[in-house]
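Human: We require from you a standard protein entry with sequence in single-letter code and fold as tokens, and nothing else.

Assistant:
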Amino acid sequence: MKDLIKRLDYFLHTKYYLMIVTAVVFLCWHLKITDVGFCALCLFAVITLLVCSDGTPAIPSVIMFVFVMSKGFNPQVDLQGQLVLYLVLAALVIGAYIFFFIKNRVKITLGRQFWVFLAMFVSFLLSGLFCEGADRAEGVIFILAFGGGAFLAYFFFVNSVTKPDNSYFAKIFLFVGIIMILELFVFYVGYEDYSILVIEKEDLDLGWGISNNIGAILLLTSAMTFYLAYKRDRYCWLYSGLAYLQYIAIFFTMSRGSMLCAVVAFPFLFAYFLKITSRRRMFLITSLVVLGILAVILAFEYEIVVGIIERIKGQWNYSSGRDLLYLEALDDFTKAPIFGVGIKFSHATGALHWYHNTPLQFLASAGIVGILAYAAYSVNKFYTLIRKGNRVNKFILFAMLMWTGYTMLDCGSFLISQVLMVVALLALAEKNTGIKPEENFVSLNRKDLN
């Protein structure tokens, strides 16, 4: 039995396990069997936490569950109709984490980000306080589910990752990027009522997220794939090619904010990679090959490309109504400057009311208390990344800079698909710095942190 557990532990830390998780996520999305996907991912996470001494292999299941939600999944109907199932699955995963801590005698630590996550959580629990007309009862469910979920995820991640493996972590994000590309491909070639060319439609909607969500996630995954190209220098050509593929996919999402951040950051990311890689020639050749393939595609499929460019140009005005939303956010802040006006929902859609700017979302919804909590989180986040750490933290920094830039034009900080990925990256970054409470974790060998 012990030998079997060791073999299973080893397998769960390989790319083959990540391939299985990726295949399950994609197939369950494509076949519209969301509940099967949820159950399978829960099973993967529970098995990992029962047999492993390091909880890293549970992270893919936790951060990928959103991507199994297809167009056939209606959150307003399915989440209510099958609430018991989802609560049971969540309880199983939480219980498995508790068992993991007990079995491995993990010395619980709060982590560097604990207090700022708690501050943001509390600021939204207080949001709308003393604001006349604020429906705090409606918002509290979202706050507890989303804010509490992110808070718990950070606590679990930072305590369960006892043996950081940066390459494995980066591969998790690579496979998320592969899921994005596969789902985008299915969308483009035609899927149910989708037209053969997305340029003929107004919205790109994969069922769990629209163009902005997909583009923002690809900002995170592409940066981490570039780290793999640096780390696995023998396969620099493969991983840099996959990183470029994800970067190109950002433009096919037609998410203006994501494209803008990708374009601005790329020269710096490219220059940094050239500076540190030992395979400079291989990387430059791969870059030229990618450029050549793009040129061929542009030559033979120019009508599609022109159509996409025209659609982007048609969308590319300054605001898309965002300027009005920004003014609305400032106006809401003046109504309740201390605790904000609270979480607002659009009664037409049942969705959160977006101001399309994360700082303004905090300012309007949670007032001065909220924006101070967000500022503390931002400072703490970048302080952790800029502090002396190894190479992976620099690539995480690029990912965070691009993603944070995107959140200035949208509210990715309030989407669970993005927040869980950011939380995982911050937990990893914390392991790769000299910042306490790292001393509270299992002693780490230096070579594990390369």
